[in-house]
Amino acid sequence: MSERLSAVRAYIEGVEQDLKEIIRSIDKRIEKARKENDIPIYHTKHRIKSPESTFLKIKKDGDGAKLAKIKDYAGYRILCLFEQDIYRVDEFLYDTFSNDNKYRLCKMKVFNWKTFYDRIKNRKRRGIEIKPEERESGYKSIHYILDCKKEKHFVEIQLRTLVQNVWGELEHHMSYKQGNIHQHIKSSFRMLSEQLGTIDNLMFNLKEIKEKEHKLESFSIRTRGPYFYLCHETDNLPSIFERDPKAAKLYQDYETHMKKRISGGEVAWLNTASRLYGELERLTHEVLSKKGCDAQDKSNIKYWQGIESAYLLFCKGELDEAMRIYEQIRDNKAYSGRYIEHFRLGEIYYIRGEIEKALECFDAGEDILIKNTNDANKQKGYDNYKNIYIIKRKLSMIYWLLGQEYIDIAIQEINEAKGVYDSYKQYRGLFSDKEYRGLINSLCYFYLEKYIILHKKEESEKKVKSNNKAKPKGKVEPKSDDVYDTALSYYNELKNLLLKHDCSSNLYDTLAWFCYQTYLKSGRTDAESLKDAKEYCKSIVEKDNKAILKLTSDNLHRYHIQEIMAAD
Collapsing DSSP states into helix, strand and coil, what is residue 289? Predict the structure, then answer.
């Protein structure tokens, strides 16, 4: 006779607490690996089998089924976004639990996954029973049984993709425990399973395309190196650069040379920069070696040496060593009121793809910038405002690259850069005509991006309204027409600049894209705007690309030209 439901309930109540502790322990291990080793686990979930479910399982398996024989009272499910991620997670689970003192991986069952089974069946997984199983429904998953040796319990770990899991939940809901299932439902689930395999492959292909785009962008940023040279605030400089004529001249030559850098990796520029830095470092070391060196001056010397040596390493592409120095400076309380190291760390984290850390560093640097700028008791010099301008321009680009969800922050940053420019443009030599053209170009392009986003959203909301549904709630956005008008004002300014200067392909790209969006805005009736867009496309090809991230910019130009030239 099989167990009564009351006996099943009593049994599970007796082991439930132990099973919960086991799951917590396993969950900690998996979460730690997920964070520290970048294991591609998207989501995890777990459960203790209910008495009712256990009771039905015993009934289904027949009179021979006993409570002690069931090995999935504790269930732990691991979901991956892509099928190809399954292989790496499988290796992780094997490495973690095959030789563990507390848990032992003793069984694996591979459901409807021949390619996976063929890949692992000949591998030396000593002491592990590996079985393939075909199910008519098309259920696709991998099940692992962990023997919790000390507690004398078992845990079942299920590994599958997110798409497979959606199918599994549907199949479980519609078929499992429902008695005699209509044959059409069974065959339909089998067909759906096959189609989901195609969807998994398609999703992986999309992932590969996205990763290739990211690698191109990362390569473009990495080869560019640090974004422009940031001058030190005057009260943070070693005093020798002011009081000693030889050191002052050498420092002026060094700073002038550093500002000439446009892109990373120029051997001649790096050699000269390293030579000038070496001479200045020797002079500052002589000051440090003298008795009675002022404590503040000593601190300034060490700060300057660290910042400049890290900058040169950054330019050479030695990011790990540069980051180590910047982190040491950041963590030194003596330099808590300085921002250059925060900004540079943010750049390096961004190159590495650690976006959250990058934004945290940028935020910290901006907070210090605001405090320093608002501190009337400190005379920072106009170079400090140039640094603010440079940093705001860089941050606007960073947020734009992060995607349309960040376009408002990108616009905020570029407007703040314009505010600095407008306030200090009268100081000779602080800003160049080229910087102004780049500023107006970014303003026009970012507002145009915002217009495109809002226009699509408004069109979508019109459809919702026409279907007699409530208008989606959310923050109050400006009208797309108003944003377009702002972009138009900067477009007109760019056109005026073209009459006075020989401009790069980047300005022509913005002008072409604006004209094309104007053509679309007219319902494809404004033939003159489309004609202008196509004329500007010719100049995109003819002119040099002066963008900081040239590869990313070239890709964008190609996309815009394709869209414009294909338009009727």
Answer: helix
Please name the residue that has the structure tokens 């398609």: 202
Matching residue, tokens 């294991």: 39
pLDDT tens-digit readout, 272-307:
999 999 999 999 998 888 877 888 889 999 999 999
Give the integer Cα–Cα distance in Å for 258 and 292: 32
3 state SS for 230-286: CCCCHHHCCCHHHHCHHHHHHHHHHHHHHHCCCCCCCHHHHHHHHHHHHHHHHHHHH
Q: Which three-class secondary structure state does DSSP give residue 132?
A: strand
State residue 186 phi and psi, 5-degree precision: -60, -50
Residue 506: exposure state from Cβ atoms within 10 A (0-12, 13-18, ≥19): buried
In total, the chain counts a number of residues equal to 568
Residue type, 258: M
The string over 511-532, giving b where at least 16 C-beta atoms fall within 10 Å of a residue's C-beta and e elsewhere, is: bbbbbbbbbebeeeeeeebbeb
DSSP SS3 for 297 = helix
Interatomic CA distance for residues 230 and 370, integer angstroms: 16
Residue ranges, the chain, pLDDT below 50: 1, 177, 264, 376-379
Q: What is the tens place of the pLDDT at every residue in 386-397?
A: 889 999 999 999
**Separation between Cα atoms, residue 517 and residue 167, nearest integer Å:** 41
Burial (0-12, 13-18, 19+ Cβ within 10 Å), 345:
buried
Give dist(CA 431, CA 373) in Å, integer. Answer: 18
Radius of gyration, alpha carbons of the chain: 32
* DSSP for residue 333: G
Q: What phi, psi does 133 have (nearest 5°)?
A: -145, 130
